[in-house]
From TrEMBL:
Name the record gives this protein: Insulin-like growth factor 2 mRNA-binding protein 2
Gene for this chain: LOC113468556
Molecular function in Gene Ontology: RNA binding
CDD domains: KH-I_IGF2BP_rpt4
Organism encoding this protein: Diaphorina citri (Asian citrus psyllid)
Gene3D superfamilies, A to Z: 3.30.310.210
Length: 75
């Protein structure tokens, strides 16, 4: 990540954060009918990527967006 990219307008740096979450909790992230994921993406401007299939114990969830939107998604 280039430092000047943090404050650049159209050329803003995009971050990808990978979270490893218990597979038993993925449903809470998704929400009923995907409602939680859609609302989180709408309110933060980030993109939440979930795999099509889940491991028995852990699942990798990716959050992609600007530095600010990723930080808000994580809070």
């Amino acid at each position: 990540m280039r430092e000047e990219g943090l404050f650049a307008g159209a050329d803003e740096v995009r971050l990808t954060i990978e979270l490893v979450v218990p597979s038993s909790q993925v449903g809470r992230i998704i929400g009923k009918g995907g409602q939680n994921v859609r609302e989180l993406q709408r309110s933060t401007g980030s993109m939440i990527k979930l795999p099509n299939s889940f491991n028995e114990e852990e699942t990798n969830v990716h959050i992609v967006g600007s530095f600010f939107s990723v930080q808000v998604s994580l809070s």
